[in-house]
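Table 4 source record.
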Amino acid sequence: MTNGYDAVPDEERDRLRRYLEAVVAARAAPVHTAVAFNAVYFGYDLGGDGYGGSPLRLDDFPVITFGECAPVLPVGAMVCVATGSDPLYAEIVYREGAHPEAGVLGDVPAWLSGAPAGAEGPGKPGSGAAPRQRELLVPDPHAFGPALSLSPAQLHRLRTRRRWINEDGHLVVDVCYPSAEAARRDELTAYAEHLLTTAREQLLSPVVPVSLAALVGGMYEDDLRAGLAGLLNTVRGVLHSSTALRTWGHYAMTRTSLADCWRDTGPLGGDDLKSLAAAVEHAATPARRRYGLAAPLTVYTAVGPRLRTFPGASEPLRGAGYAAAVCRANVALADVVQGDSEQGLFENGSRITLDDAFEGGGVWRSHHPGDAEASGDPLTPAGLGWKSTLPASSEPEAELDPIDLPLADDASLDTGELLRNDALEIVWWTPLRLAHLIGSWFPLHPYVVEDLRRSHGARPTVRLDIDHAGEVLDEKEATQAVTAELGDESGRLVGITWPRDFFPGLLLELRQRGGGTVIRLVTTRLTKRIQVGDRETGHRYDPRVLTREDAPGSDRHHDSAVGLGPRQLVMRTVRRCGLLTLDGHALMDRSVLPSAVYGRQPARSQAAALESAVAELLAERLLEPALGSRDPWGQPHFPARDREPAIPLIGYRPARRPVIRPWGGTEPGGEGLLGIQFVPGHLRRLRPGCSPSDVQRAAFREHCRRLGKADGWELPHGYTFVTEHTRGR
């Protein structure tokens, strides 16, 4: 499941689907993908205890304090609301924009529909590096079971005082985003970032059924990110594939509940939903005029505030009912648009589209006449309201494409070493390069070139025997007939089929017997497999070449920065252009990063995206800060030199970590262990009256230490610890 929905066997998908359908049916609010992930990962009890029996530590939850700017709290975040008396523990199950300029009748000014976080008015996106945005959060105060929930009287008192939660039981907070890029993240990316930072102790707790660290086989940040993204993708795919559920964005509802709503004749039932759809459809339709033409008209309607105008809606919109009502209303509008219009264009001439999926629970745009506008998917938010307020003369700053600079130290990276040269054989070693992999060739030592040319001419056929130590190669890879292109002073083998496990930097030892046409290529094993950056290997390598040529955007088929995101561009540029040490450590002048990526100073938005990416990579310790100096000619140096101005550097250090094989893996050269499953350490509930042994208590403390848990190393009451082991399937 860490590899995503498509990698999960059908049987496992069905098991997960049945459980999630039961979770959606049991929860009062529509179940967001992030909430569904919580239910699976932390263990949501369908019998009424919720997360009450899970290993979650309440002290790890972020605290929301009245009167303070709140941290970023995506849907799925588990929080503690400091109420001044008993704390309110809750899971955030719904989130929307709550800008104060949205009207109480659902009317929204055009500029607000699709506006970026921190926007100050029509055409004014704001200039703050840390934008603020007012948001409405719907907490579920009963998610942790009766033992950890406030009583109805306590909740009523909090709603009445309207200090920590409003009269509907919702949180209206001003959220401070660390950067504009963070504010633009999609919901699942934002939740993954929350789990890996704010809720990291919660995510990597060794007492969850199976920790993410155990699932991905270590604590390397990129592995954790990839594994978490795969799990979220699996959960989302299962929710969307269920025939018993209906989704609006990331929110899932049972089809039964939707049918019951349509049959309901009370507040916010079927009649009110039909009235809402009719109001949106005719919002921009001009009144009949006897003379002249009606001017074009555009109306923006926010679903959340509009629902409050229906008689008797106050009570159904309290608590989680608000989230359910908003999602049902959006589904109803979407069904009307898809069923009664041609890509949003209705018979009355109005075009209805979803313009903003976040503000006010969703802003729908009604425009008349609609036939003058270009058609498109009416349910894909286009933010036309915000775009319409931008000055006509203001054109977006032209963005540049990243460039690929040649390696300044390319020649020095190719140096190998002659190990033997006598009448019997010539032996040398050299690292494999990215160009060799892409071009299917390999350079020959000058002594070999001289020997082959003298004995066999300028283009002899050579047998290449490859021995990848500890690995079994395909016959076509192990023995190959290749051509030697020999010049007067240099030569190379062409037409090589490189084994799939070969990578830039892999050290190769080559042997050629004097006068022969057989060259043997051998790799050398390490004592154990290691993880270096994104590369896992069990063989010797040159760390300098690995840093330079195994960077993002480089693989055995191509080498380009085109199409990379800001994080990947930063990592690629630092690794390709930074000052390189013998151990593969690359250091770069932080101030020249944008021009190094794009060849010249890029657009402000691109430079800001790179700076945000640098901040994230430093926070995740994938890059590290350093201090260097710059000489009078502009050349940076590390360590800093005396009497030279100091400059900030950013550095990439390829940390070596041993590889843990989580599920049926084996060390290179092992027996393969086919049918053997590795079971990570986990907790097991004991029978009443039983207690764990001292040996298992000590084993659990060691397990927590290896996973890096800062505290809580004692076994929870009623549990023992099962150490990691292998078993036959």
